[in-house]
């Protein structure tokens, strides 16, 4: 070929090899393009898409389940690359639970494609009770699988146990929660709120929460008598988690069912503080932060005046 190239450009051999080279070069480009397309699409055939989440402190998820299992029998965990979300109403459609666990809060998190896992929360809690508080938890599920696996590892890795649970098909409506500017926001110790709900439920089935510039008042009345607990905003406190902080735009007074508030306080072990957000004629929001991983919010519709239950 080199020798022919030394001939004049008008020679027949040069034109022949030039055409031949052009042909093989075009074939090469076609093969290269085909290979690139094949490699690009290869993962969709041979790569198993899956979900995996790892928590060094398995006790966190155990506390989360304990906080919602009395309100919800079953729910769907929606998993995406941003984290795990759960939203469901209780059977009476009076309260709503919204759980968000961010992906960056896990020690390891992988979600190749959006995945919805319908789970019986009671069964899941039974599995979580098999784990020691210092066990490392790993949750795994393959794409389109009908089961989810929970694996517990002891810190020294001398003991490893795994449990497989069947998933459920749950027809659940995902409700949009509108952004609301609340009239009053109360931040207080979660333990104090739990004690107030427990104490006042001894006096009646309903609790009145009233927020004014003087502070926040919790009240209940019934056949036994009546009870009132008032909290003023903390002026000076060494520890922020022990403070009572009130942000009030306008006064608000609402009545709620004690039994739901008591159920919400099961999230107390998750956070040292609770946030109550209130506005007239909209649901109360009771929020607990879950460390650096996320938060759980309970929404409770206020009771209408003269409502019996």
Automatic annotation (TrEMBL):
UniProt keyword Cell inner membrane present: no
Pfam families: PCNA_C, PCNA_N
Record-linked HAMAP family: DNApol_clamp_arch
This protein's name: DNA sliding clamp PCNA
Domain Proliferating cell nuclear antigen PCNA N-terminal: 50-173
Coiled coil regions in record: none
GO-annotated molecular function: DNA binding; DNA polymerase processivity factor activity
InterPro entries with a match to the protein in the record: DNA_clamp_sf, Pr_cel_nuc_antig, Pr_cel_nuc_antig_C, Pr_cel_nuc_antig_CS, Pr_cel_nuc_antig_N
Gene Ontology biological process terms from the UniProt entry: leading strand elongation; mismatch repair; regulation of DNA replication; translesion synthesis
Subunit composition and interactions: Homotrimer. Forms a complex with activator 1 heteropentamer in the presence of ATP.
Species of provenance: Lygus hesperus (Western plant bug)
Proliferating cell nuclear antigen PCNA C-terminal domain: residues covered: 176-303
Highest taxon in the source lineage: Eukaryota
Family, as annotated: Belongs to the PCNA family.
UniProt entry tagged with the keyword DNA-binding: yes
Keywords: DNA replication, DNA-binding, Membrane, Nucleus, Transmembrane, Transmembrane helix
Gene3D superfamilies xrefs: DNA Polymerase III, subunit A, domain 2
Main location: nucleus
Function in brief: This protein is an auxiliary protein of DNA polymerase delta and is involved in the control of eukaryotic DNA replication by increasing the polymerase's processivity during elongation of the leading strand.
PROSITE patterns noted in UniProt: PCNA_1, PCNA_2
Listed transmembrane segments: 20-42
PANTHER family (UniProt xref): PROLIFERATING CELL NUCLEAR ANTIGEN (PTHR11352)
Compartments, record wording: Nucleus
């Amino acid at each position: 070929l080199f020798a022919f190239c030394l001939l004049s450009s008008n020679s027949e051999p040069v034109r022949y090899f030039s055409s031949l080279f052009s042909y093989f070069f075009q074939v090469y480009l076609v093969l290269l393009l085909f290979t690139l397309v094949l490699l690009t699409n290869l993962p969709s055939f041979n790569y198993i898409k899956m979900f995996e989440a790892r928590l060094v402190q398995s006790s966190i998820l155990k506390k989360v389940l304990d906080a919602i299992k009395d309100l919800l029998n079953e729910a769907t965990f929606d998993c995406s690359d941003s984290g795990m979300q759960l939203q469901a109403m209780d059977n009476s459609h009076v309260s709503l639970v919204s759980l968000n666990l961010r992906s960056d809060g896990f020690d390891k998190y992988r979600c190749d494609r959006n995945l919805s896992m319908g789970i019986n929360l009671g069964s899941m809690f039974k599995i979580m009770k098999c784990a020691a508080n210092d066990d490392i938890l790993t949750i795994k599920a393959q794409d389109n699988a009908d089961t989810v696996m929970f694996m517990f590892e002891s810190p020294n890795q001398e003991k490893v146990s795994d449990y497989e649970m069947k998933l459920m098909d749950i027809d659940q409506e995902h409700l949009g929660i509108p952004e609301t500017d609340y009239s009053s926001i109360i931040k207080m110790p979660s333990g104090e709120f739990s004690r107030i709900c427990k104490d006042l439920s001894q006096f009646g089935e309903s609790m009145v929460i009233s927020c004014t510039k003087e502070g926040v008042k919790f009240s209940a009345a019934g056949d036994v008598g009546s009870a009132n607990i008032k909290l003023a905003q903390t002026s000076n406190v060494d520890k922020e988690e022990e403070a009572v902080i009130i942000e009030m735009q306008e006064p608000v007074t609402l009545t709620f069912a004690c039994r739901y508030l008591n159920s919400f306080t099961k999230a107390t072990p998750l956070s040292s503080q609770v946030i109550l957000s209130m506005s007239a004629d909209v649901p109360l929001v009771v929020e607990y932060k879950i460390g650096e991983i996320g938060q759980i919010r309970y929404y409770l519709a206020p009771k209408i005046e003269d409502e019996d239950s």
